[in-house]
Request: fold
Amino acid sequence: MERAPLRPVPGRPDAPLPDAAAVTLVAAALPALSERERTALALVALAGTARPAVAMRLGIGAEELADSLARARKELRRTVAALPGSGWCERAERQISDRIDGALSERDEPRLDVHLRNCPRCVEHERRLVQATDALVGGVVTPAPSAPAPKPPALATIEPEPEAAAPLASRQPSPAQLGLAVGWAILIVVAIVLALAALALALSAQL
Reply:
């Protein structure tokens, strides 16, 4: 019987990560995951916790845990490549996830083999998933770029309003203006004195 090509196996940490560190790493790399999904992936893939213990910790059944892990691994694979798919591919992704954890049933093993022999897309999914898992184990997963944050609106430039004309009594003349006024006053006084002197001379000449 023809067999599916040998499939890559994702790496595991040299030593299991502490639970909190594993969850923090997955949350930073895959912010779109729900709390359940990120916790499931962190505990199974990085902390090395067995699936039954993780299901008990999360208070869910084995099937719900399997679905959460499959969704988390799909999101992980998307950090490397986006792929189209169908309902059959969704089922295969779930089976691939189960097989990674050694939880694929004997009944589903041949079904997955048949699907992979006829679906290059799912072969690529598994290959990319292994790449992304190895990157996660190495702590180098780059989160998928999110939409750029909108730029804050530019602050409008407020033109200073022209100062209202101050009442005459409130205006304070500058020193230059004071000097000019004093100079003019002196000239006026001199002119008046000269005019009076001229008038006096004229009157004395007539007497």
User: Anything to note?
Assistant: Residues 152-170 have pLDDT under 50 and may be disordered.
